[in-house]
Design brief:
Blueprint (H helix, E strand, L loop, with lengths): L1 H15 L11 E9 L6 H9 L7 E3 L6 E3 L5 H14 L2 H9 L11 H7 L15 H14 L3 E12 L1 H16 L6 H23 E12 L3 H11 L8 H9 L6 E10 L11 H23 L7 E2 L2 E3 L2 E4 L13 E8 L5 E11 L24 E8 L8 E4 L9 E2 L3
Parallel strand pairs: 1-2, 1-3, 1-4
Antiparallel strand pairs: 4-5, 5-6, 7-13, 8-9, 9-12, 10-11, 10-13, 11-12, 11-14
Length: about 425
């Protein structure tokens, strides 16, 4: 055990000593899966669009090789049970842990990914911690809780809502408009006809492509028991791995678990045609915005899933942060300003030092394809906030977290 702590601490601790003004932070990690319904209309288009979506900016990409699973016609609780069964049978929690430690075909582990993502750590007040002290081990446990413990899985059940009747009406209207253009012929007429045909096709898709999405949220269970067992029995690098250790790890079906947090259901909002150049853009735009909306609502409902973002700059009573409408910001939003501190036992805590709210005309529209549709605020690159209250002067590198309170906030530990 001492050897494992020595190896990991000797690499992790120096990298955690980052200056207080750093705007880097520890992101949560996210694995996203789609439930595919082959019997459903538009399923092929939905699956294709989903496969091209990127992980939301505020998460580390923790995707595994399986990005979608084919489902039966199960609904509600039966569907939730089907998902749980899939996760257990395919040992998804173990695979997610294996990704954290870069397990290779021989069963050997390393901490390269932990080092890479650990570079997002912020403001460690005491950077002279010996790797052999109790405090040093507390730091390692803390890093594990923040990095591995904040690993989430979202399973998106997407169902197409058929609005073909409305789509046909849109097509008729466009065709009627074209018929009223007088004196058009030849190459110009063909061009207009092609444009109208394309517009009709896109209008058909826009009017007809609406989806209902239920997003199921899960979180990896990483605690002292799991960590100690893993480091003592399974962790070995390429020089120390044995066939017996490899086989024992692979046969363990009980240590690594994932817990169900909750779910949220929404229907995609009306799609704006501006910026859409081809039919496939419609699917990606609708899916991306609907999934982003569900993630935002899950974060509002479950504090453990809330994202913290760094303050980029502070000037007077204003500050800026790389967050916007994709994360659910509106003119009525409020955000806690958090300072990261260490408790006496070496655990990370986030202490509220103030509250800010976005300035209405300076909210960044960072939703999918907002630039293409020339949306107001799409060019900003960040949202500007104004101070509501403070107990300590703000500085770049502090963190923002959406508030779910009325009045003051009690200090919240990362491992709550």
């Amino acid at each position: 055990m001492r050897r494992i702590f020595t190896i990991i601490l000797s690499i992790l601790l120096p990298m955690m000593a980052i200056c207080q003004q750093s705007d880097k932070y520890m992101r949560s990690s996210l694995y996203s899966i789609l439930l595919s319904h082959p019997e459903q209309k538009m399923d092929k288009e939905i699956t294709s669009a989903f496969m091209k979506l990127k992980t939301p900016d505020k998460f580390n990409n923790h995707d595994l090789s399986v990005k979608y699973i084919t489902t039966t016609k199960a609904k509600g609780d039966d569907l939730e049970q089907m998902i749980s069964s899939f996760l257990y049978v395919n040992q998804v929690p173990k695979r997610m842990i294996s990704k954290w430690f870069n397990r290779d075909e021989n069963g050997a582990f390393d901490i390269d990914l932990l080092k890479e993502r650990g570079l997002y750590g912020t403001s460690w007040q005491d950077n002279q911690i010996s790797k052999f002290t109790i405090r040093g081990k507390a730091e390692l446990a803390d890093a594990g809780e923040q990095l591995i413990g904040n690993t989430f899985l979202v399973v998106n059940n997407v169902r197409y809502i058929d609005k073909e009747k409305n789509a046909q009406i849109a097509k008729i209207i466009l065709s009627a408009i074209a018929s009223f253009i007088p004196g058009v012929g030849g190459a110009v007429g063909d061009l207009i006809k092609n444009v109208v045909d394309l517009a009709s096709q896109i209008a058909n898709l826009i009017a007809g492509f609406t989806v209902k999405i239920t997003t199921y949220l899960y979180q990896i269970e990483w605690n002292d028991e799991v960590a100690n067992t893993f480091y003592n029995q399974y962790y070995a690098d390429k020089k120390h791995i044995t066939p017996e250790m490899k086989a024992t790890f692979e046969s363990d079906t009980t240590l690594f678990r994932i817990k169900y947090i909750g779910r949220f259901t929404s229907t995609s909002s009306k799609t704006v045609a501006r910026g859409i150049q081809e039919p496939s853009d419609v699917f990606r735009k609708v899916l991306a915005r609907a999934i982003d909306r569900n993630i935002v609502d899950l974060q509002r409902k479950y504090d453990v899933f809330k994202v913290k973002v760094p303050v980029l700059a502070v000037k007077g009573d204003r500050l800026t942060a790389p967050i916007g409408m994709k994360e659910g910001i509106t003119a009525t939003s409020k955000y806690e300003v958090l300072e990261r501190v260490l408790s006496k036992d070496g655990k990370t805590q986030y202490q509220q030092v103030g509250v800010v709210r976005p300035i209405k005309d300076l909210i960044w529209d960072n939703r999918y394809m907002s630039v293409e549709e020339e949306a107001d605020g799409a060019e900003l690159g960040y949202t500007t906030f104004e101070k509501v209250s403070e107990t300590k002067e703000f500085y770049a590198g502090m963190l923002l977290r959406e508030a779910s309170f009325s009045g003051s906030v009690v200090d919240e530990s990362e491992d709550d």
